[in-house]
């Protein structure tokens, strides 16, 4: 982990955040689960400029016990899961350039802060994310980290969820993507009901739109299902 060095963000970096924020909020509208929109308001993410980690933590930590720390790039799974189990979320200390608004290889602070942090202000979701951290630590120790990485992927990162019978975006990878947000809801791709067993056994793509999405019957149900999952059941699953 590194200091965020908020002062190092240039005027153009802040302008890129503002551009991405405005564009994405308009694109999402109400097509995203409601706790996400509540989180955006609670964390005052609509304030102009790249949010500073300390300001976010001052709101987030008293609420759900989670805090963010700045990192220079992707964190390997065993360390990432250990951080989640401590209620720590790593956020990139950089933002994409204006020329690459729609794509980037490594998650930057727009993906991390806009995509992930609002949901961590929701108590139930925050608890689920911590539990995934615990499961991930145990699974990585046993050489089965992929199983928990898939649960994370199909819920926290690229999950969809029903809300009052409407299909909504849940995952941060979709929330923060200009192209894939609508694609995930509207394209002719497979959408299968989420279960922890299906998630553990459904591979995913890092570098392209997903060929299939798992849909939570409700966010509450997925939180309950994941919280009911013990490490023994993960470790006894075939990978
Ligand atoms: Fe992410």
Question: Can you characterise this structure?
Answer:
The chain is of the alpha/beta class. The protein contains 12 helices and 6 strands. Helix 10 (196-200) links the parallel strand 5 and strand 6 (212-216). The model has no long low-confidence stretch (mean pLDDT 94). The structure holds fe (ii) ion (FE2).
Number of helices: 12
Structure class = alpha/beta
Q: Could you give the count of β-strands?
A: 6
Which sheet architecture does the biggest sheet show?
4 strands, mixed
The radius of gyration is: 17 Å
Task: Outline the secondary-structure elements.
Layout: H1 11-28, H2 34-42, H3 53-64, E1 67-71, H4 77-85, E2 88-92, H5 109-116, H6 123-141, H7 145-157, E3 160-163, E4 166-169, H8 172-175, H9 180-186, E5 190-193, H10 196-200, E6 212-216, H11 219-227, H12 231-235
Parallel strand pairs: 1-2, 3-6, 5-6
Antiparallel strand pairs: 3-4
Helix pairs in contact: 4-6, 6-7, 6-11
The chain binds fe (ii) ion.
Note the main attributes of this structure.
4-stranded mixed β-sheet, 239 residues, single chain, two-stranded parallel sheet, binds fe (ii) ion, alpha/beta, 12 helices
């Amino acid at each position: 982990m590194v200091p965020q060095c908020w002062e190092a963000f240039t005027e153009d970096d802040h302008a890129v955040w503002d551009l991405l924020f405005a564009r994405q909020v308009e694109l999402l509208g109400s097509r995203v689960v409601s706790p996400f929109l509540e989180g955006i308001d609670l964390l005052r993410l609509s304030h102009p400029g790249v949010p500073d980690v300390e300001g976010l933590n001052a709101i987030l930590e008293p609420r759900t016990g989670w805090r963010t720390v700045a990192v220079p790039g992707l964190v390997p799974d065993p360390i990432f899961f250990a951080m989640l189990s401590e209620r720590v979320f790593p956020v990139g200390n950089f933002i994409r350039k204006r020329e690459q608004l729609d794509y980037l290889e490594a998650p930057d602070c727009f993906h991390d802060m806009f995509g992930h942090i609002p949901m961590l202000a929701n108590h139930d979701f925050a608890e689920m994310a911590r539990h995934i951290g615990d499961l991930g630590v145990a699974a990585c120790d046993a050489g089965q980290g992929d199983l928990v990485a898939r649960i994370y992927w199909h819920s926290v990162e690229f999950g969809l969820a029903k809300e009052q019978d409407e299909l909504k975006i849940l995952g941060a990878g979709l929330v923060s993507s200009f192209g894939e947000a609508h694609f995930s809801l509207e394209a002719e791709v497979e959408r299968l009901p989420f279960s922890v067993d299906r998630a553990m056994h459904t591979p995913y793509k890092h570098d392209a739109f997903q060929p299939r999405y798992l849909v939570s019957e409700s966010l509450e149900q997925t939180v309950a299902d994941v919280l009911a999952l013990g490490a023994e059941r993960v470790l006894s699953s075939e990978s």
